[in-house]
Amino acid sequence: MVRIIGIDPGLRNTGWGIIEQHGQRLSYLAEGSLQSDAAAELAVRLLQIHRQLLAVITEFSPDEAAIEETFVNKDARATLKLGQARGAALLAPASLGIPVAEYAPNQIKKSVVGAGHAEKHQVKHMVRMLLPRAEMKTADSTDALAIAICHAHHRTTGTLARALARS
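The chain above was modelled as a monomer; its predicted structure follows.
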């Protein structure tokens, strides 16, 4: 049995989802979304994300973590801020010695839905099919569960080995 946390990083909302993998079987454990104070300075917001995620990791004790890679959009400033939030999120499991794998958005969609350019509603439908007990409280936590599912599908194909080699 392996416990996996999926992390969907964001400066406003960071989604998280915890699943367990027993061979080929996946089980839903928990999910949620962390918020940072939009009125606070950037450094404070990043610290809020980091501390809240550390609390989740401490509570659920995942064995492995998976996080979505940053996608570049037209707004360079927004991309940079997302990258900083992602960095704060990456530090939480890494600081506790938990290996972290990274996945591109298209790889996550392809792993969960079967198509790399799937729509959000298709991803949500497949997460519901694969994890029937999942509450899917927010779009961010649903995405985090999809990231965890992606990792469960790829963890034995070298992604985890590459993550371990980097740490």
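The CA atoms of residues 14 and 34 lie 5 Å apart.
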